[in-house]
């Protein structure tokens, strides 16, 4: 045991946090960073300029607390999402991680159970521990897909109070059919389950892949969570949000810290939303690189999963550790998510994607 761990264990830490590792992909200085699914394209110059101007203006009022209700931002997010949503349907926080945490603070906790379907986003169990919510899982099929039948059955069996559905799922990259969301929602009626569809990567979905936003009307236990970290290239600004029934946003007001969204964050997010078109043009470019990765990896005899996201999960890798290291030696960092025979790579700029493909061709 390291000294540091020993010192930590001497503290009166909560039992359910003992032995846990903090979330954290490495943040090394490597020329081609394709390991954390952020947006590899920088902000377009005019979006950057608009953010600088908006933040400058916000700075003049930093002696005052920000708008606690972030009304303008909720209005803008509702407009962006469409689907007949209004500001009362929208909630936002510092990244969708905080949105998810607030949902667990309001609807999870001791005696409550959250369910998910691994492999999935590694923060779900950590958010559950942090809120003393029991975390249970139910497996996917061997090809990592999830059927409506299997998902509904798992919800009934576990009597989950909260269900996380990653769609598109991280690390596998594929979106769920709406039939899965509907089945989970119906199965969750018996335990009044809050169903969270985590659509962090929704803007990268292939044409024809529907969003669960269309299912919101009439489903007061359904939440669709989104983020500005991926499509909007704002991971550094920390802005996530959700769409749900107004009573859900009222519930989250009970647990949020007052003024949790800084004036700087609100100004940044608003300026970016005003330039959604320019940012979504970059999304199209990233989707092109993503499709190129899927095609070229298939041609190399590897097995990429269908991707609705800005990353590709691929199988058929004989020794993932060797391939991962070989790429790193050439300055390309991707993610070994710990699933035998598989690796995950984020779609980069054209040059970054070329560097990745060139090197992996030599390695497999
Ligand atoms: N959900 C999923 C599935 C993710 O992959 C991520 C980011 N890795 C998030 C939520 C959280 O992103 P953020 O807090 O930056 O919005």
TrEMBL record:
<feature type="modified residue" description="N6-(pyridoxal phosphate)lysine">
    <location>
        <position position="230"/>
    </location>
</feature>
<dbReference type="GO" id="GO:0004400">
    <property type="term" value="F:histidinol-phosphate transaminase activity"/>
</dbReference>
<dbReference type="InterPro" id="IPR015422">
    <property type="entry name" value="PyrdxlP-dep_Trfase_small"/>
</dbReference>
<comment type="subunit">
    <text>Homodimer.</text>
</comment>
<keyword id="KW-0808">Transferase</keyword>
<dbReference type="Pfam" id="PF00155">
    <property type="entry name" value="Aminotran_1_2"/>
</dbReference>
<keyword id="KW-0028">Amino-acid biosynthesis</keyword>
<dbReference type="InterPro" id="IPR015421">
    <property type="entry name" value="PyrdxlP-dep_Trfase_major"/>
</dbReference>
<dbReference type="InterPro" id="IPR004839">
    <property type="entry name" value="Aminotransferase_I/II_large"/>
</dbReference>
<dbReference type="InterPro" id="IPR005861">
    <property type="entry name" value="HisP_aminotrans"/>
</dbReference>
<dbReference type="InterPro" id="IPR001917">
    <property type="entry name" value="Aminotrans_II_pyridoxalP_BS"/>
</dbReference>
<feature type="domain" description="Aminotransferase class I/classII large">
    <location>
        <begin position="32"/>
        <end position="360"/>
    </location>
</feature>
<keyword id="KW-0032">Aminotransferase</keyword>
<keyword id="KW-0368">Histidine biosynthesis</keyword>
<dbReference type="InterPro" id="IPR015424">
    <property type="entry name" value="PyrdxlP-dep_Trfase"/>
</dbReference>
<comment type="pathway">
    <text>Amino-acid biosynthesis; L-histidine biosynthesis; L-histidine from 5-phospho-alpha-D-ribose 1-diphosphate: step 7/9.</text>
</comment>
<keyword id="KW-0663">Pyridoxal phosphate</keyword>
<protein>
    <recommendedName>
        <fullName>Histidinol-phosphate aminotransferase</fullName>
        <ecNumber>2.6.1.9</ecNumber>
    </recommendedName>
</protein>
<comment type="similarity">
    <text>Belongs to the class-II pyridoxal-phosphate-dependent aminotransferase family. Histidinol-phosphate aminotransferase subfamily.</text>
</comment>
